[in-house]
Design goal:
The protein has seven helices and ten strands. The chain is an alpha+beta fold.
């Protein structure tokens, strides 16, 4: 079995308990060791505007957004892990609902805007995570309830996930998401300036895997246009559950050692 070759990297793992509840879960990763994130970029703005226009042209109501293939699969996945998707829509559904109502998404920075554009285009949750301060492991797993989550914009008001809630947890006992991909933590929020980034794309059923690959391709092309193509790309699922996206070699099978 290949060994990790990036001692300063992050090992990402999908916990068995998540795969058992949602067997079709696929996690796509792009590692960007260093990127000076700009406030905006013309190519990204064009992508996001085109994605918003495409959603609005479909004339979707709330039920129509919920029926989009990627979103519908995530609603089923949320139910499978005990979450109410009507109360806690996945990230892809939340932004698609907003745009379908006629709104434009707020422009945050080039990387966040890029992720929103690709999410709208593929109906999959897509996120940019600044991982420079993340401890050496990041695991998609049920919470035990002791993890600390610092809400976006409110890092001085820590929360604790509910026991059993699916989170992204690091090796220091911190949760970097709530309710799977419903909310992102303040710790990993992408700002402007130099960043070490991990881009994530998530599908909840096998049919979404092709859209996931297309999303990774779009992200890679856009990153190249920003002047810093990604170093590594990795896809994890129930058969390939763990790897180090920042490493030249990754663990590709079996249980984490």
């Amino acid at each position: 079995m290949p060994q990790l070759t990036d001692p300063g990297g992050i090992r990402v793992t999908i916990d068995d308990r998540v795969s058992e509840r949602v067997p079709g879960y696929v996690l796509g990763l792009i590692a960007v060791p260093a990127l000076d994130v700009p406030r905006d970029h013309p190519a990204v703005e064009r992508l996001l505007t085109a994605a918003e226009d495409a959603v609005q042209a479909r004339g979707l109501d709330k039920a129509g957004v919920a029926a989009l293939p990627g979103v519908a699969a995530w609603r089923d996945a949320y139910r499978a892990v005990g979450l109410n998707p009507n109360r806690f829509p996945c990230a892809a559904e939340a932004i698609a609902r907003r745009v379908a109502k006629g709104d434009r998404l707020p422009r945050i920075n080039a990387l966040v805007d890029l992720c929103n554009a690709v999410s709208l285009a593929t109906s999959l949750p897509v996120a940019s995570c600044a991982v420079g301060s993340v401890a050496k492991e990041l695991t998609v797993r049920p919470a035990d309830g002791t993890e600390a989550f610092l809400p976006l914009g409110r890092p001085d008001a820590p929360e604790h996930p509910e026991p059993g809630e699916v989170i992204y947890a690091d090796g220091a006992g911190r949760a970097h998401s709530r309710r799977w991909n419903w909310r992102q933590s303040h710790v990993v929020a992408t700002g402007t300036g130099p960043q070490r980034l991990l881009l994530t794309v998530e599908a909840a059923d096998p049919a979404g895997a092709a859209r996931l690959d297309a999303a990774l391709d779009r992200l890679g092309d856009a990153l190249a246009a920003l002047g810093d193509p990604p170093a590594h790309r990795l896809r994890l699922d129930r058969t390939v559950r763990t790897g180090s996206p920042f490493a030249a070699e990754t663990v590709t099978a079996g249980r984490p050692s």
